[in-house]
Amino acid sequence: MDTTKQQQINGLIFGGISLLLPNVSSIISKATSNDSSAAVGGAIAVIIISLAALVLGIIGIVKSAAARKAATEAGEKKIIGTVGLIVSIVGTVYAALIFFMLGVCVACVVCAAAAAMSA
After folding, report:
1. Model pLDDT for residues 57-107, shown as the tens digit of each residue
2. Which of 15, 53, 106, 109 could form an SS bridge with 95, CB 3.0 to 4.6 Å?
3. What are the sequence ranges of the domains in the chain?
4. Higher pLDDT residue, 47 or 41?
5. How many angstroms separate the CA atoms of 98 and 22, rounded?
6. Cβ-Cβ contacts under 8 Å for 29 (sequence gap 6 or more)
7. φ/ψ bin of 75: left (φ > 0), alpha (ψ from -120 to 50), beta (otherwise)
């Protein structure tokens, strides 16, 4: 397998993982939602996993773009790199939405708990 094709596949894999990780973290959150202390731990796990997915998505974007450029210079097909770029962008946006929305929710819960404890 040539190096540009392998680079394109690597970008696609990073993008795919960034798209799947937030879904896995949502399953973890739903599994721990019965107990209130476990639910907070599940929400924190979702935030951490979504942040990891966000980082992997950015890596996928960079790798896919570099692979597409290398494939263009080598005169090879760049369809896998294009698909990897699209999947990485979608995964990054999805992970960012979950990361920031859940981060705000956890911050509100912590703030409300602190206000309730001080009152």
Report:
1. 999 999 999 999 999 999 899 999 999 999 999 999 999 998 888 777 777
2. 53
3. 3-118
4. 47
5. 7
6. 39, 42, 43, 45, 46
7. left
